[in-house]
Amino acid sequence: MSQLPRISREVRLATVPAGLPRAEDFTVVEVPLPVPGDGEVLVRNRFFLVFAALRTLLGGGVKGTPFPPILPGDTLFGAAIGEVVTAPDGSGLRPGDLVSHRLGWREYAVLAAADCTPLGDALPDPVAHLAQGRTAYGALTRGAKVGPGDTVFVSGGAGSVGSLAGRIAKLLGAERVIGSTGSPEKAKRMVAELGYDAAIVRGAGPLTEQLAVAAPDGIDVLFDNVAGEDLRAAVAAARTGARFVLVGALSGQLAKDGSGNAAPVELDAYQLILKQITMRGYSAMGDPEVQPEWIDRFGGWLRSGAIDFPYVRVEGIAQAPQALHEMMTGRHLGTVVVAL
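Structure tokens predicted for NADP-dependent oxidoreductase (340 residues):
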């Protein structure tokens, strides 16, 4: 412990954002290096995830979600990859081991050994454990049961989840995959880099009309990470018996106005009935069996070159607040990761 720094830095909420979070809504503070108690592990974080769901937590949260709201003065949290510094006897952990946990947004973290998951060598690159493909894989295999011949529409296809969902759908046998995004530049990259056959752009004309052109025979599956106009367009394009699986609500989380904790959308119930559309929500956190299956398949796909992990690397904890703002305002394609 004598070789460790005396302080650690962490990102705290300074004020509740008015609209989308800005860098000045946060502060990077120095705190004494945390000291582990009995049964606790000290971890030096190497990477942590920047993710859109923080907007909901900063806005007061949503009843029923597994995480508490983040209040002014609180340290942010989220998925992280760290290196064990010290670990208690009998924990199965040793200094130098890489683990995943949920106390990101700080340089050092203290947590119970049970809250650390050793990474092993299942994935060729440790940072790939921050990929949000588990949600996409679980929703497409369990919620929508994508199979050969399906036409799949992925809303929010350029974000951390959507950037993997299109490629996963293809690997599961989908014949055609269409994604949506808010940027013409991202739409081009989605087709060139992410395996999409076509991409439609919010703000470039009615999505219903764009989707009708991209999928003239309709869609069999909706992987919905947005809600809003994207969900309405999917209802209009749905074939009889279409399967919709809802995993996110970016239309609310990334709305410039509001708190980010609601995503209302008006749908034509007649169309849901007449087309016999099935619609369900999916959360990978409520499906513990999906994680080992996803890691096994993801590792194989990465090693074979069938898929990659598109992410933007931001260097240093001081840049994390700005990285959050840039992610929420649509600057980046794929997952945003802060490296420490």
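The chain has two domains: 7-131+309-339, 133-286.
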